[in-house]
Amino acid sequence: MTDFHPDLIVTNGKVATVDPSNSIAEAVATKGERIVAVGGAAEVSALAGPETRIVDASGRTVIPGLMDGHAHMDREGLKDVFPSLEGCKSVGDILERVRTLAANTAPGEWIVTMPVGDPPYYWNVPGCLNENRFPTRLELDDAAPDNPVYIRPIWGFWRHQLPLESVANTQALDLAGISKNTDPATSTIEFEKDSLGELTGLIREQHFMPVAELGYFHIAPRFTQSDRIAGLKKAMTIYNSTATTSVLEEHGAAQELINTYQAVNTAGDATVRAHLVYSPAWGGTNDIEYSTVMQNWTSWLGQRGLGDDWLR
Predict the structure, then answer these.
(1) Max Cα-Cα span within the chain
(2) Euclidean distance between CA atoms 25 and 203, whole angstroms
(3) What is the pLDDT of residues 83-93, one digit of tens each?
(4) What is the pLDDT of residues 54-63, one digit of tens each?
(5) Could you tell me the pTM of the whole model?
(6) N or C: which end of the chain has fewer CB within 10 A?
(7) 199: which strand partners?
């Protein structure tokens, strides 16, 4: 042991070992990616070398890293990719923010924002606005006369409360193929109309998945691969801040998500270990689509998968 020196020693703490007897130690030492010593403060500290980093826990509890078994970690970092409406207290505030965005957006290009309200849960919407209502399509037209504008709905599972509500101006509705004569694709979607039968621009959904956004407004800009990579790195930092060091995405990961994890890992930027379960893309329910899905799925069978200690 004379040539052995840990990279890190955390001492003078309450180290939860999670061994069979749930014993509490005073110190823990690591070298590389391994825990190399657990025990009393004096005996572990004696292993220190000139390059060892020593952290005094000052009596605080030290625990192993936590694992999230159903993370959707990538979404955490994508919650603020689009411009935020956080802090808006009135319809006027929202319109002013849209005007500012329009001033910096070329004519014809989309303006897509995060939902009305304050993250992360967007409670009390539209009650958080002085008027207790959403902006109308005509108000958005006035704020951005040369651009399609779409204010996104929340992802329903953020707050588990219905309805989901989004707003579009006239250009956005036209591009989405929505008019006052359009029948919603499902009874759980409502295109709100005023007393004259004209669209207000408000779209109300009675389901947790943003079907209108994914269906009608699929033409609007969404996340780029660069957005996904930056978002995943940000999400890992957020997870680390809550002592989470590994995740299992057992709900299934589409190829673009796997590509994102691979890019972060290959660049050496991963700070959360991830285990992914492959999920093929579904394009429909006909025999050809079923065949394609099964081919994609079975192509993974008989292989060891991919990855390393940080990504599998």
Answers:
(1) 86
(2) 57
(3) 999 999 999 99
(4) 999 999 999 9
(5) 0.79
(6) N
(7) 193
